[in-house]
Amino acid sequence: MDKQEKIKQLLNLREQAKLGGGKKRIEAQHAKGKMTARERIEILLDEGSFEEYDMFVTHRCNDFDLAEKKYPGDGVVTGHGTIDGRVVYVYSQDFTVLGGSLSETFARKICKVMDQAMKVGAPVIGINDSGGARIQEGVMSLAGYAEIFQRNIMASGVIPQISAVFGPCAGGAVYSPALTDVIIMSENTSYMFVTGPKVTKTVTGEVISTEDLGGATVHTSKSGVAHFKAEDEEEGLMIIRKLLEYLPQNNLEDPPVTETSDPSERADDILNEIIPGQSSLAYDMKDVIYTIVDHKEFLEVHRHFARNIIVGFAKFNGMPVGIVANQPKFLAGVLDIDASRKAARFVRFCDAFNVPIVTLVDVPGFMPGSAQEYGGIIIQGAKLLYAYGEATVPKITVTLRKSYGGAHDVMSCKQLRGDLNYAWPSAEIAVMGAQGAIEILEGKKAGSIKDREERDRYIAGKEQEYIEKFANPYAAARVGFIDDVIEPRNTRFRIIRGLQTLMTKKDTNPPKKHSNMPL
Asked: How far apart are CA 146 and CA 142, in angstroms?
């Protein structure tokens, strides 16, 4: 065979590898509304940037007729490329090859790119579309999963790990995405569960569909397992590209700062009027967020889950930040189990990758009730408390209205190493609201007043006295727990100036093997 024939052979082998499981299976993939593994990579990465690894790898199992079913690449496409010119590593599971089932060599391909990503300090993006373990390989397939899990664990907090689930992801396969930082699911074409509908029916008698058990809507609104629900795969891939705009390459770098035409000194008069006159009335915290960030751009994370708290990414004068904000529009912005763990997870993610945290507070307290207590609200609330106290990134807190009781402490107060704690004039920082406080403090005396009108006047007077003394920002400001009471219209400028000042912040935690946070 001469040189030209060898080159021709190479090109033919490449074309064969690019076909995965063959044209019929590619057509079947498209018929399900799904892209192929390579099509997903093409959309995700900058054009022409993908460098593939292990295109010619095949499995080594000969049991159960597998010797007759060998495909170049063995069901997963791996390599590296760029997103907006920044290096990322990627693996994309190929459902057209043996249902995307994971073999020993399939796992080794994934492990190779994860090891490389750790060496160079670059994000890893995994695109999941797999029927699970390759049964014919038995324990070798299970060992392959465990090898991946171990790398997920070692990479956690070192490089960003992002998982897209664009097809089936069941059984042991779900744990790799669960160990990563962000999970994106596509509507109607993806699902995740440990145990499927058939086994669920056999064991428990429950009859449930695949979608209702583990679809994108379930995991983005009920379980909180997934962070984003995309209408289709292309939108999901665009979310990944957008997300990386706010993140550094690794934990030793800072997030990329970009230029912006949105003036840092921009004042927003609407903020002076946004808080309702009555403290019991709701407003939309997202209106505040969109007003103060650059160009009204806010990438919300976990948008459909625990909507009484908001988390997501934005920029201030081109500087990426993570935003945590109570949402008075839902459950009055109260902290419950789901809201606490949602926010705690986000705060720790930001802290791991040097993303400053801006906290907007309007919280009436923790959700009462036996369901919350039985569900461990004490431990769940402690997670958020722990996350803020552990975080060493710049932390700026703005209290807009209510900040009551233990929830005040939990929402990035000064004593949890808050760097700058501001308050609007409408802020109410107290142990509890006036009505509840007076019931405790004056209930007995008020009850002794027989005349109803006189009793009501007495209670109203005491409530007003309490409001004037406690339900304002000045009591906290007098003792330095609030650094300044600011005019709402200047919030954007004050946050930006604070972030610029804190760019050189240095803070450390005591040496330890690892923490024992409340799990």
From this structure: 6
